[in-house]
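Hello,

Our lab assistant flagged a job as stuck in the queue for most of the afternoon. It eventually completed. Since we weren't sure the result was trustworthy after the delay, we are filing this so someone can double-check. Below is the sequence as submitted and the structure that was eventually returned. Let us know if re-running is recommended.
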Amino acid sequence: MEDVTKSAESLNISNDNGASEPAVIGPAPPPPGADLSALFGNLPPGALAASAANASGKPMTVDETFAEMNKHPLFMTSLPADDENEELAALQALAYEGTPLENAQNFKEQGNECFKAKQWKDAKEFYGKGIAVLVKADRERRDPAFKAKVEEEKRKQEEEKRKAAAEGDAKAKMEADLENVEAEMPIPEDQEKKEELSEEETIKQETALLETLYCNRAACHLSLANYRSCTLDCAAALRINPSNLKALYRSGRALLSVSKIAEADDACARGLEIDPNNAALKQLARDLIAKNEEIQRKQRAEAERLEKERRRQLLKKAALEARGIKTRSTDDPPSMEDACIKLVPDELDPQSELSFPCMLLYPLKLESDFIKEFRETESVGQHLEYILPDMPWDEDEEYNSPEKVECYMESLTGGLIKVPLKASLLRVLSSGKTEVVDELVRVFVVPKNKAEGWIKEWKEKKASEKK
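-- returned structure --
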């Protein structure tokens, strides 16, 4: 206890006034910009000071400092465009330093960390790298030609390393020589025997890990809504282990998401055969039933809609034929939204009246008006009564009343027929002299005092078109 007290007291010294103050432990920190190489015996003088300066010898700015830090793999925020970063290349090579089983296990663990953080894309990439490692290892075992090709590539890489070591510094050469010595060291017989005996276990572990990686990557695809890729990975896992419940569940979920009910139901049923009490699969089964009922409701509604539309078209066609109204369609019909020829007020009642979309055209003014429902019992004059007064473009008041205008429709031969203002639309259309093109009735409206000149121009234009 006394030693502790003395040690504590020894940390206080007295100043000129007799008051005690804390003692300074160790030397004071160096000022900013000082050469710190003295603190590091293995560095040349000025090395640290130089590292904090740019090419001009001036202290680096904050941006330059961050740029310099970004060259180191531990601080990188993005991969460099070139392949000259030796530290990064070394770290990337470390990922494949072990056995295929070790490398794949490492990729799986990295993928799991990303998956926990909901970084689905990154997790998918790590799982994919693990799968690639194991698939390659399996192919090497099964395909002697492929194995020979891989070994030849490794031999070339080792040869390049030896050449680089010979041209590099002594340290690199020493490391290369050490690797060569280690490669040439004979393997003890007992160790060699142990590896031969463990090959079967290695294959077993690699197969189990490959199944897990496929299943995990399928989970990433499911979270990313890559449903087809999810089903493919689940299928790969199920080829290894047909009883993999996670693969069956995720496959069922993916298939349900794209409304493939039969396939999803098959996956769910297979899973429930293995584990009837699996909560996730039971919920999937309930969701399948609900989705199937929803699809059937939509199918019934669509079938009813199509049947109604078919009957509507048949009744409309019969009504037009019964009235002797000619119709024709072109390859470029006008856009009229939901306006069309129909029976009103009930489209499915044969006793209803026909209604036509109608365009009133004012060719001398390049203006128009659209009537969405022009019933067969109505006349052109009835509509002009409320349309013509107070037209903003009728400055000369040539159109301000039905009595000042004449109406025409194009005939079947390309000429013009005059439309009486008081005649019903049915009377005009059933005369056999005109037709309804693309379900739209077109009526030309011109002032009486200019009708003769306009008709002359129409005939001249049609005559020139026939030449």
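-- support follow-up --
The delay was a queue issue, not a problem with the job. The result is valid. Confidence is low (pLDDT under 50) at residues 1-24, 46-50, 174-187, 191-197. The two ends are 126 Å apart (CA to CA).
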